[in-house]
Amino acid sequence: MAIAKLEDPEVQSRLANHPGWAVVDGKLHREFEFASFVEAFGFMAKVALLAERADHHPEWSNVYNRVRIDLTTHDTGGLSDRDFRLATEIDALL
Fold it and tell me: Over 80: is that where the pLDDT of 2 sits?
């Protein structure tokens, strides 16, 4: 079953339910700040497990206590329901 790309009105509607997330360069983007590197890295380990289970892997980076996450569905050339589902799971970790 093909993954459907979300059109802009649907993306904007879903963003309303995801505070802290924004669309940047066509990707669902959020930055997180933690008290320490260990907390940031621990968060990334938890996200990695979610992503692996969903078979949907983020583009991300970590610098000391900050984690930057970008979600996109490469197969659709944009955002899909998979990106917003993973964002919801990531937010639940906080």
Answer: no
